[in-house]
Here is the input.
Amino acid sequence: MIAVKNLTHSFSDGTALTFPDWQVAKGSSALILGASGCGKTTFLHLLSGLLKAQSGEIKIEGQNILELNTSQLDHFRGKHIGFVFQKPHLVQSLSVYENILLAPFLGQKMSQKKRIDHVMAELGIGELRNKPVSQISQGQAQRVAIARAVINEPDVLFGDEPTASLDDESCHSVIQLLKKQAQECNATLIIATHDSRVKSEFENQVQL
Here is the structure.
């Protein structure tokens, strides 16, 4: 479960954002909506610990992540959180398999070779195992990014505008892939987007 209370964040230029109190039940899916520039990505980065809020409370699995120091937060994020960005951010010099393997390595997880094979097959990228990511398509790269995000079986899976650059068919496909992978992990799925095409896919929504 994720619970947000009295959350605020200020930038160095003096801009201050206040976010609504919000709860998302364990294993459910939710959407953060709003126009560009309204603070969706900031909210998502605060929830995932990529940014540190000045005040308030963010509880993930009962832990207020604002109480953690940088080292503790890095460890917590590696163990509990998966993140799919708008762009895949893959390491171009590595193969598809090696990019996915980075997640358990950085998260200090035990060998996940069987699980990697399973997730790659589920996402339809098994045949790309040894291919350099510099030689795969944008859609395939996004599936690799999803695999990397879910491989550690996170408690929470975040997506930042994962459908923004996709056509309608690919948009629906990616949302279904994210939902299915989150369900397999019993992970809470939270997506931030201004893409109105995905609104009908989620009951729990917060508008910024």
Notes: Residues 2-207 form a domain with the Rossmann fold fold (CATH 3.40.50.300).
